[in-house]
Structures are given as structure tokens and as C-alpha cells.
């Protein structure tokens, strides 16, 4: 089939006229109004037709897609271009609206609301539909818009960062909440939150003491999962303070707990941290052994390993080359 | 509703470009969480979460509502809503948060939500009320989650154009390496949400 026509309910009549004009020009068309068979779910029929069609025409009226069904069609149309590079999208825009951004890389033809350029647009569509049989659509660069949005994204990079004044207030509130806490569990959770705030404020010594207090309570309560999380957090704090031996010792304790809990991704993550901390503290050979253990485990876990085998192998290469570990 | 005053944070992301993520946060789900965060930033949106900065005196529910109600979009992964442990207990936090998003949509039409479910259709048994909606399906792999999230976000009127799963999957290892570096700084359990988001933004804008 040559063409699938996606349209809103409001543009039903226009879609039928377009389908009829395309058929008159020997283009085969799938239109829901004509092509749905009884007994088949509409989503199933649309998905199959979108897969079969070489070209998907998106008829876009003056309103954004208002129905779930039209959004479904747009989503499936886009997915079908990812699965089949030979498929093309063509936009037909009615009126003066801008096309939706996802069509920026595809050809979009415009008609005014009176349809005065109708025959020319249909002829042009037929040309593009026929080209699709031999070419790979009409993708073109969309750079300017992307860079504008990249700037906007970068400007967002620091939002959600708490101000020092707010952090100071949070610290006071947490200290009060800890004094008023009704259970050891609550005290432990609040101490962990307090340590995070202290870390944010750059008060590393205080954070260390807070985490140690939380750790004592958690160990007494026998909550192994929380104890392991606290140990890793304490290890990271010790590292920041330059106490690598203590940090590594804490990670070993966390590793044992995660192993006893059968939490494979936590074991993997802790092994990776051990490798990195050992290397940073001048014990590169021990670090390599931990990293090899981590790589073996990540292969066993498969795609859901975190860190992934790819990341760990990249770290291993950096170790071999004597480079600092970090993003490529 | 958001209890955070203007002086509390350096800034707030634009709600019209914010996407609230409701999914598991445990280590076994982490690769999927990271792929969702990166997919959102890659489409030009800002990932939001109940674990982002907030007032410590606020309840968890208040934090969830604060982040969810200041996001035009939300993504809810119900794929792990099944019995766990010897008592076969299921966690209901995620369906609860989905319910809040549906209620917000019903109230003001300004919120759009998507639900991720396993592609074996078991969701129709545990949330039959979703029958008639069109959930995004995935088989638990990064690739299928990325495709589902990308195609849902990419058709939005304020999305960045040109998104493809292949390009995003190529960026994922670079993002993960940045996150690993952050984990060394903070430890897994206390890694600030904004740093995860910042790393995603740096990954997608460094192309």
C-alpha cells in the first residue's frame, strides 16, 4: 500500500477528499473511514496499516491533536520510521499553524483553509509518494531549533539546586525533627537526610559524624539494606575527606551486606566503587582485581547490569592506559 | 501545589516542559530509570521526581504532589507492580501516583500522562480500569523502554525534533559514566536528583 492518511475527526471530510484525489492518481490509500473491517480493534488495524504503508500522510488541521487516537497514530507513525528507514512521513498543514516539531525533518506541504492550492499540493504529494519507492524520504537538517533548545536546557542545568539559606533552614528543621522523632527508624532516616544536607553545605566532618550515628542505629535495628546504603554514603564522604583506607573498609562492609541480601546490582556497583577507590588510593593492582570481578558479574547480569559491562570495560581500558577514570 | 518558595531553589524548570517520573528507584531498575531520564532530556524536557529537592518537613505525599502538579507530563511504569517476597505483596505507590496524574488530567486537562506496562498484557488483570487507554508497552529492556518514551514525548508540541532511539542509545554509555562519577562523590543512596538531571542535560547538549 502506498499511503496511510492520519487525520483528526474535525478534518474527516478533507481526509476523504484527499484520499479520493490520490486514488484518482493511481495511489493506493488506507483511510480509516473506508478501510476498517468489522471485528478488528482500531489500534490493531491502524498499527498494521502504518507498518504496510510506504508513506504516511499526516493531515494537520488548525488544532493540535485532540484525540487519543490521533496521538496514537502519530506515535506509531514515528516508531514505524525508526523501524523502517525506507518509510517517509509527509505533513499536510491546513491554515497558518506551524507543523509539530517532530515533522521538522520531513517534508511539510501547506494549504490555506480555502484549499486554493489544493490540486498543486495533491500533485506534489503524488510526486513524493512515488519517490518514496526509490528514495529514503526527505529528511533534512533541523539544527537551528535544536541548538536553541540546547541552550535552554543548559540554562536549566542548575535549577532545583537549593540555596545556602534554604539548606541552613533545612538543617535546623532536621535537627528539630530528630529531637522530636518517635522511633529509632525515624531518627535513622532523618539523620541520613541531615547528612545529605551537611554534604550539600560542604560540612564533611559533620556529615561523617551524622552518618556514623545513623549507622549505629541502623545496625542495632538489623536493617541490612539501609545499613549498606549508609555504609556506601559514608565511604563516599570518607573519600571526599581523603580517608581512603576507611572508605575502602566501609565499602567492604557494604559489599558483604549486599551479597547476603542477594542484591546483584548493588554488589556490582559496590565492586566498581571499590575498584575506583583502590586505584585512587594508589592500589591500582587491587583495583584491577575488583574491576575484573565487576566485569564478570555484569556479564552474568546482562543488559540490566548497573554499571553496564560497556562502562566497566571502558573503565578497564582507562586503567590500562593509566588515565583517570571518568566520562569519555 | 509546591511548598518550595522562590528563595529555596536557584530556579524551577518550566512546568510546560517538565516530565514527572513515577517508577521504581531500586538498583535493579536503575538502567531503565537512567534511560528514561536521558530520553526526557534528549527530547528537550526536564525530568522531575518525588525525590528532587524539597522541604524536609513535608510529607512524601506533599513532595510527590509538588513535583507532579508542577509537571505538564508524567510517565508511570507499572511493570514492577507484582507480588514480591514470601507474602507476595505488591507495592502500590506507583498506581497511587498514576491515579493522582489521572485526577489532575481530569480536573484541568493541562496534564498528560503515559503508563508503561509489560507487553504481556498482565496489566489488564491488576489495573483493569486502564482498559480503553493506550499504554506504552515494553519487555523490560532498555531499547523497548527508550522507544516507548521517545515516541510518546517526541510528538509533543514543545519537543525537540529529530529524536531517534539509535542516537539516544549511543548516548546512554556516556551518561552512565557521568553517573558513575557522581556515585563516587555521593554514594548511591544520596545522589541528588538534580545532579542526575544535570548529567543528562550535559550528555545531550554535548553532542
Structure report:
Chain A contains 14 helices and 5 strands. Chain A is an alpha/beta fold. In chain A, helix 10 (224-240) runs antiparallel to helix 11 (244-260) and helix 12 (264-280) packs antiparallel against helix 13. Mean pLDDT of chain A is 87; it is low at 135-142. Chain B is built from 7 helices and 5 strands, in the order E-H-E-H-E-H-E-H-E-H-H-H. Chain B has a 5-stranded parallel sheet with strand order 2-1-3-4-5, sandwiched between helices. The chains are: A alpha/beta (328), B alpha/beta (207).
TL;DR?
Helices cover 63% and strands 7% of the residues of chain A.
Protein traits:
heterodimer; A: 328 residues; alpha/beta; 63% helix; elongated; B: 207 residues; 7 helices; 5 strands
> Which segments of chain A are poorly predicted (pLDDT under 50) over 5 or more consecutive residues?
135-142
Instruction: Round the Cα radius of gyration of chain B to an integer and report it.
Output: 17 Å
**Could you describe the largest sheet of chain B, including whether it forms a barrel?**
5 strands, parallel
- Our Rg estimate of chain A from Cα atoms comes to 30 Å
Coarse shape of chain B: globular
Topology:
The complex is a heterodimer of chains A (328) and B (207).
Chain A: E1 3-6, H1 12-24, E2 29-30, H2 32-35, H3 42-52, E3 55-60, H4 68-83, E4 88-94, E5 107-111, H5 118-131, H6 143-156, H7 164-180, H8 184-200, H9 204-221, H10 224-240, H11 244-260, H12 264-280, H13 284-301, H14 309-321
Helix pairs in contact in A: 3-4, 7-8, 8-9, 9-10, 10-11, 11-12, 12-13, 13-14
Chain B: E1 18-22, H1 30-42, E2 46-48, H2 60-69, E3 73-77, H3 93-108, E4 112-118, H4 123-126, E5 136-138, H5 142-154, H6 165-186, H7 193-205
Parallel strand pairs in B: 1-2, 1-3, 3-4, 4-5
Helix pairs in contact in B: 1-5, 1-6, 1-7, 2-3, 6-7
